[in-house]
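quick one before i forget lol
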Amino acid sequence: MVTLTQTSWLEHPTDAIIQLLRTPPIRLEASQNLIHYHAPENLVAGSTVFYHLISGFNRISWSASISSVKGSLIQTRLLKGPFRGFNAKHHFENEDGVSICIEELSFQGESEHFLLEIQKAKICYALQERQQTLDALLKYETAKNTKSFQALDSLGGMSAG
């Protein structure tokens, strides 16, 4: 069994961080082993959180179900993955405009290779990359809607019958 704990201080409001964590980054550069995750739209028991460990060109992915949400504490439990067990606690606090993210991830039945890689890993929030993903999605949706309106406008002079 191995447990990864990390406390991070981020200069973003907690609500904004949680909102960004719902979007997976399109692109993520990793110079070291890192773990990133993305949360579901609704943080309720039974929803799925997706986790990824990136180590060089290798990526190990697993999913967990939210088992409880109590205030700013979210707990998850393994749904599917390459190990026997996984539990996580994600705790978010706001103090003087700074968000404090306290993470605890526990793995059971992991391979020796995974154990070596996870011991070198850090949790990466990738807030800028997630915002870039949101911006790209918004740009795509805007362009798609504009083309739909243009198509409707081109039909404006036509009538049935």
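fyi The CA atoms of residues 74 and 90 lie 5 Å apart.
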